[in-house]
Amino acid sequence: MSHDNYYEYYERLANWSFDEFDIHSESLTDWDLYEILGSLTDKDSHILDLGTGGGEKLLAYYPDCAGILGTDYSPQMIATANENLTRSGRKNITFKVMDNLKMDVPSDYFDIVVARHTITDPAQIYQCLKPGGHLLIRGVDKYDSWGLKMIFGGGQGYNDPVPVSITDYENVLNSGFADVELVPIHEREFFKDREVFKAFLGKVPILEGEPDDKLLNEYISKNTVGGRIRLLRNYYGITARK
Question: In the chain, what are the domains?
Answer without folding.
Answer: 3-144+159-187+234-241 (3.40.50.150)
